Amino acid sequence: MTTKMRSEIAEQPAALRATLDALLPRIDEVKTLGEQTRQLLFIARGTSDNAAVYGRYLVEAHTGRLATLAAPSIATTYRRKLDLNGVLAVALSQSGRTEEIVETLAWAKDCGARTVAITNGGPQSPLAEAADLALCTLAGEEKAVPATKTYTTQLAALAVLGLGLGADVDRGDLRRVPDEVEKLVGEPGDLAEIVEGLADKPGVVVSGRGLVFSTALELALKLKEACYLHAMGLSYADLLHGPIAVVDEDTPAILVAAGEGPTLPGTISLAERVVGAGAAAYGVGGGDGLASAANASLRGPDLPEWVAPLGLIVPGQLLTEALARRLGIDPDAPRGLNKVTQTD
User: Fold this and answer.
1) Which residue of 16, 45, 70, 129 has the lowest C-beta tally within 10 Å?
2) H or E stretch including 115?
3) CB–CB of 121/154 below 8 Å?
């Protein structure tokens, strides 16, 4: 039986094409807002927060602007007013109905920020209506509780945001993403071997750095949500500062990397260190170098680093779905989760 999660993973190429068709023509609208601001503030929770991490690295690495992640409790719990003049506040919510995120975006506007919403909830969603500019993704209805296509289309919207803010990249790379995702859905790599390698393990460390740090965080979250693993998502820089001690024969490492870029050599070195210490290292992406250093690996997209996260998460989603079934868990409806989470 095909799960809803597996079906929705396969729908991502179409969802990405539709979203890019809708949002790429709006780059000039982003540019207009961007010209009125100098730095960015990302507002999100959960999976959307992981997408925001990608947005932060993209903006700082390729537009030269400072970008930070908001603490919504400053607005909703402490109720402090900040000076946000010159700030572009970008709120992300798949449903567009998470009250905390809507309230925080309204707070940011009241504090002087210009505002953008990224949501799959449509232009009539509360978040879209609260924003100066709404970038609505076209993932379609997502029935499985773990987010897949709503996450990748959020990343696509953030890539468009980066282009509108003047990112020094080739926008043609973005148009290649759906085809690369389609290839990964069909041929993810050593999926069965890694599923078996994780099936009897209580936990796993998932690590990446830079633009792909978002992928490590999102894969760790998915493994926690749908497989009930104690999965820790870390930058490999932080991992090496102490938590590397938890990696052993009972706690393997999943290491994520784009096929190019400044963080790839360090990821390969980390894989070699993990394997040398007697633990299992599983690669996601990273080309032949990471595949050779790891015990087994999942393929990554043939994309430059700035858009690689849009494809890198896909084999991780497939791994999560397959591992959940292997563990006897329904990945469509893991315990304790709902599609819309409201924070007190």
Assistant:
1) 129
2) strand 114-119
3) no
> What are the C-alpha distances in Å from 18 to residues 6, 197, 262, 277?
20, 36, 31, 46
The span from the CA of 261 to the CA of 267, in Å, is: 11
Each residue's pLDDT tens digit, 111-167: 999 999 999 999 999 999 999 999 999 999 999 999 999 999 999 999 999 999 999
The string of pLDDT tens digits covering residues 189-203 is 999 999 999 999 999
Q: Which domains are assigned to the chain?
A: 4-175 (3.40.50.10490), 186-326 (3.40.50.10490)
**Residues in Cβ contact with 296 at an 8 Å cutoff, skipping those fewer than 6 apart:** 189, 190, 193, 194, 197, 282, 283
Element (H, E) at 91: strand 87-93
End-to-end CA distance of the chain: 37
Identity of residue 200: D
Counting DSSP H helices and E strands in the chain, the numbers are: 16, 10
- The kind and range of the H/E element at 146 are none
| Buried-state track 333-344, b at ≥16 Cβ within 10 A, e below 16 | bbeeeeeeeeee
- The span from the CA of 244 to the CA of 119, in Å, is 36
Strands (E), 209-336: 230-235, 253-257, 281-285, 296-298
Measured CA to CA, the distance from residue 214 to residue 67 in angstroms comes to 15
Pick from 298, 270, 266: which is nearest to 282 by CA? 298
The Cβ of residue 304 has, within 10 Å, a number of other Cβ atoms equal to 16
Classified as helix, coil or strand, 206 is strand
Enzyme catalytic residues = 339
Mean pLDDT of the 276-294 span: 95
How far is 94 from 337, CA to CA, in rounded Å?
15
